[in-house]
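=== RUN LOG ===
request id: a7f3
mode: sequence -> structure
chains: 1
length: 193
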Amino acid sequence: MKNEMPRLQYAFNELEPIISAETLEYHYGKHLQTYVGNLAKLVKGTEYETRDIEEIVATAPDGGIFNNAGQVLNHVLYFLQFSAPNHGSLPEGRLAGIIDRDFGNLEALKAKMEEAAINLFGSGWAWLSLDNDGKLQITQESNAGNPIRRGHKPLLCFDVWEHAYYIDYRNRRADYVKQLWNIINWQEISLRL
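=== RESULT ===
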């Protein structure tokens, strides 16, 4: 993945009422754009200038370059995992089998993911990722954290920084988290697997 704004497969108003056009204007159009711009400035003339985002996130020491690269990667994965409400899909094939194997069923996965997202103290991310043994893991990551730092493959994420939900849900993080399932594009998650 390069350090650039991703092309969304939906119009800003197509995720409503789950995520409003206003939230996308700020979250995608301003927050993500700022991280992309900051990272471009920070890596200029460094060893990271020609590396892809995943490699920067995996190898950069804590600090400005990692924080901005992590936020670029996290936000790209977040925004590209959505589709219009009620037009999504359900896990199928290999993904469905792994979910059943590691969680028992999709509802159990959802419950554990919601718990991780809702109970994360402060700002950060809840992640579903594939570990080095091919097992699904749910983790909490603070700030710009990403499972890539542990060698895991990120599949699905919930952004629980307040800017992701405050316009639409105010301080009701749990309501926001529960609604995200209505716009998850499981075909995209399968492709990441």
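=== NOTES ===
The CA atoms of residues 126 and 140 lie 5 Å apart.
The mean pLDDT is 96.
=== END ===
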